Structure formats: C-alpha cells, structure tokens
C-alpha cells in the first residue's frame, strides 16, 4: 500500500497545520487529483463512545468497535471516501478501493500511537446479494471517516482524514481541524466523559417480547436432520429473529455502554447505513486478526448455558468439553478454517486444544488458529475465503447457504457477517455479526442462530436460540 508520510514535527501549531494543507493542495494541482490528508493527533484518554455520541449525525455512516478486556475502542463517522456495492466480487472490489485510495494519501502526525493513521471501516452482508425490496445494507460498505477517535489502554488518538483538492478553502479546513483537536484536548470537552450504561427499568413500556414461529423452527430442524442423515449436509446454522417494539427508539450509545459493561470479552460494535438504521451487537467470535503479518482466527462452535453456582457451572463446562455432538460441530469449523488457509498457501497451527470461552450467560468451545501470512496476501483475500464459516452457515458451504435461504423467512442483512477494519499498513481485525440486533426506529429485530448437526435435539436448539437472544434483549428492553 502506497502512503506518502509527512514530517510529524511540523504539526506544532495552526500555522504549521495550514502549511501542510498548502503543500498537499500544490500536489493535488500538480496531479490534477484530490489528495487525502490523514492527520494523527494525540489527545487525552477520552471515551470514543462518548465522542461518537457527540459527533455522529443520522445521515452519516458511523462505526463503533470495542473490546473492553483488551482495552481498545474505536469510533468513526462522516465518510470522506466510501464504497457501497453488491455482487460476488465485493471483497476484491473493496480491496482495490482501499489500495487505490491509499495511493493519494498523505499521512502526518503521531503515527507511532496505537490505531494511528487512516483506517477503512468495513461491513459485509451475509449474502453477496440481497433482495431489493428488503435491502437495508449493501453487500459491501467500506468507508474512510473524516473523524476517527481511538483509545488503546491509556493512549488516545484523533485521526482526521481530509480531502484536499484545488478548490479547497484551506483556512476554513485548518480552523475546523484545529478546533476539533483543541476540543478533544480540553479537560472540559463533552467527549472526555465516559458514557454510562443505560439505567433500564422494567420493560413495561414495550410489547412483551415473545419468540414466535417456534414450531416452524423445530420442524425445520427435523427436516435438516433428515438431510444430514442422508449425507447431503454435515451441519447447518439455522437462525431465528425476535422483533421488539418500543414507544421510542432505544438510545444507541447507552445500549452499547451496557453491552461493553456486561460482555467485556466480546466485540461490541455498531454500524449504520446513513438512512436511519443501525446494526449493533456483542459478538464473542473473532473471524480474523492480522497484525504484522501474524494471523489469528477463532474456531468457535458448541454451546452450553452457564451454571447458577460454581459446582453447576463446572459440571456444564466439563459436559460441553466432552460432548460428542458439540465436539463434532466444533471440529467441522476447525477443519474448514485450516483447509481454507491451506488453499491460500498458508500453513496454520492450532495453538491449543478446544477450551471454554465463558461469557456471562453462555459458554462455547473455542480453538485458536495462528499463521504467518505472506506479504502479497491481503487481509480481505483471506476474509473472502473464510466467509461464511460453518460456525455461522454450515457445511458444505454452498449447500448450507442454499438451505439457509430455504428455511429462513427473513433477510440476514449483516447478521453472522464480517464487520471490522483495515488500516493503511494492511493490519486489521474482523468479528462476526452474531449476538446482534437491527435498530430501525421503534422496531428492534434481534438475531440468534444454532448449529444443527447429527445428534441435535430440536427443543435444545430452540432453547439455545432463546439463551443467545438474551445477550441483547436485556440491554435493549
């Protein structure tokens, strides 16, 4: 990726900032092409979620990402560059868009800080085509934000990405960036506080949430089990939805604050389409993480509830580790991941035997897979190969996707799909949009899925769906 650096020491005051823009405008005139100026500026350790609540506008795309246990949070809004496309070439086109955008990008400022430099925020729907009448999100959305605020442990950075062409008013641009930087550096800034969890009362104002079409779900599970017995399938992930209507749209910021408090080991995320809808969740599943060409991915499959006390909890965890059905489901996912990497020429390693990932209301079998990635392989190429894994679709992959269309009566949109970011150095991280909800005004649609394999029990799978739905139900209602 081509990025032109600019000496950081020149960004000491408003005058030096203006001089940087003047130099970039001269380049834009010479090339007859707009330049992206990406400034990374140190700020106090603000709460990115609080900053996002102050900056975001309904008509702008936004992106939020936090994993509290790793002490990382990123907020981004107001696209400077964006790509929204449909079709089977979406990952390739997204990669090309990122690489092309970086050719005309100048970076400056505190690039040594964590999460500094330009980041491209991405969301991909589960299927590469969605029905036009129900489409809320394009099959691929990639955007470079005007404002990005990130905090990693006790360090924070403001990344301002500005488009400079021959007509740009540089005085106005300098004033805007300088003002935003000073506001975030000020102890009195509104964005410095920490956004608190919602103080939710009993959900008397909402329609009581009841899981409907349960018989349809269990019947579908029985039909899927017949296909598995006939060896047409190894596994299918069948999802269910729960619609909740409230008098007023739920406060997104407080819902995200609640999720990060309750699920510190999950990826808490939110993405919007700029048309009034947002997709948010608290996902336990890392699809891919790439840092300095070192890859980590999760095989996450097999579930059990948590116990009411230590003895019961230990018993349930031990049962999960030894359950043949759950271990088979887990192995299908692990084999798929390793085979995908092998087909890309990547030698992967299993870092440990299956172990428990324990969340407040549910526990999963998890195995970490690691690998060293060659320089010529882009993160989005690996992402395309992995999505969708059997953890969210099934196996074989193509047949499973056809069966999902057959049995599910709703559009998945971003549910069970890749959500994450890629930076200017090719690093990035993606989670899978599970334990998630679509916020559409006063209507909230929650999603959850269960993996059906040989030995699955329809009633147990339904109970697993209900258990997973509580991840977001308790935070939103």
UniProtKB/TrEMBL annotation:
<dbReference type="InterPro" id="IPR005801">
    <property type="entry name" value="ADC_synthase"/>
</dbReference>
<dbReference type="InterPro" id="IPR015890">
    <property type="entry name" value="Chorismate_C"/>
</dbReference>
<dbReference type="Pfam" id="PF00425">
    <property type="entry name" value="Chorismate_bind"/>
</dbReference>
<protein>
    <recommendedName>
        <fullName>isochorismate synthase</fullName>
        <ecNumber>5.4.4.2</ecNumber>
    </recommendedName>
</protein>
<feature type="domain" description="Chorismate-utilising enzyme C-terminal">
    <location>
        <begin position="215"/>
        <end position="468"/>
    </location>
</feature>
<dbReference type="InterPro" id="IPR004561">
    <property type="entry name" value="IsoChor_synthase"/>
</dbReference>
<dbReference type="GO" id="GO:0008909">
    <property type="term" value="F:isochorismate synthase activity"/>
</dbReference>
<comment type="similarity">
    <text>Belongs to the isochorismate synthase family.</text>
</comment>
<keyword id="KW-0413">Isomerase</keyword>
């Amino acid at each position: 990726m081509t990025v032109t650096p600019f000496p950081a020491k020149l960004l000491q005051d408003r005058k030096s900032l203006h001089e940087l823009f003047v130099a970039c405008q001269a380049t834009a005139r010479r090339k007859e092409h707009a330049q992206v100026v990406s400034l990374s500026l140190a700020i106090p350790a603000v709460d990115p979620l609080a900053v996002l609540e102050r900056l975001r506008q309904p008509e702008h795309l936004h992106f939020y990402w936090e994993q509290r246990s790793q002490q990382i949070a990123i907020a981004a809004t107001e696209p400077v560059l964006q790509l929204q496309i449909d079709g089977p070439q979406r990952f390739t086109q997204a990669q090309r868009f990122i690489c092309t955008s970086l050719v005309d990008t100048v970076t400056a400022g505190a690039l040594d800080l964590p999460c500094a430099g330009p980041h491209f925020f991405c969301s991909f729907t589960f299927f590469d085509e969605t029905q036009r009448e129900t489409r809320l999100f394009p099959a691929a959305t990639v955007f470079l934000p005007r404002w990005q605020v990130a905090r990693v442990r006790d360090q924070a950075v403001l990344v301002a990405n500005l488009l400079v062409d021959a007509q740009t008013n540089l005085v106005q641009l300098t004033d805007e960036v300088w003002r935003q930087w000073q506001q975030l550096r000020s102890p009195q800034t509104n964005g410095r506080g920490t956004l608190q969890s919602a103080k939710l009362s009993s959900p008397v104002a909402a329609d009581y949430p009841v899981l409907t079409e349960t018989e349809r779900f269990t019947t579908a599970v029985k039909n899927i089990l017949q296909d598995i017995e006939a060896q047409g399938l190894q596994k299918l992930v069948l999802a269910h939805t729960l619609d909740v209507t409230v008098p007023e749209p739920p406060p997104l910021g407080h819902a995200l604050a609640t999720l990060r408090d309750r699920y510190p080991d999950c990826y808490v995320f939110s993405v919007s389409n700029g048309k009034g809808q947002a997709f948010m969740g608290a996902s336990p599943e890392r699809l891919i993480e790439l840092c300095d060409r070192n890859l980590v991915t999760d095989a996450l499959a097999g579930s059990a509830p948590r116990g009411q006390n230590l003895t019961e909890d230990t018993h349930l965890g031990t049962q999960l580790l030894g359950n043949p059905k759950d271990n088979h489901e887990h192995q299908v996912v692990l084999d798929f991941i390793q085979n995908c990497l092998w087909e890309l020429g990547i030698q992967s390693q299993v870092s440990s035997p299956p172990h428990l990932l324990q969340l407040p209301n549910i526990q999963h079998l998890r195995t970490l897979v690691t690998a060293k990635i060659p320089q010529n392989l882009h993160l989005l190429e690996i992402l395309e190969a992995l999505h969708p894994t059997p953890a969210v679709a099934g196996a074989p992959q193509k047949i499973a996707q056809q069966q999902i269309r057959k049995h599910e009566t709703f559009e998945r949109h971003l549910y069970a799909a890749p959500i994450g970011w890629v930076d200017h150095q090719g690093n990035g991280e993606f989670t899978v949009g599970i334990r998630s909800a679509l916020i559409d005004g006063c209507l909230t649609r929650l999603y959850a899925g269960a993996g059906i394999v040989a030995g699955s029990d329809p009633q147990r799978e339904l109970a697993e769906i209900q258990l997973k739905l509580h991840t977001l139900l308790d935070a939103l209602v």
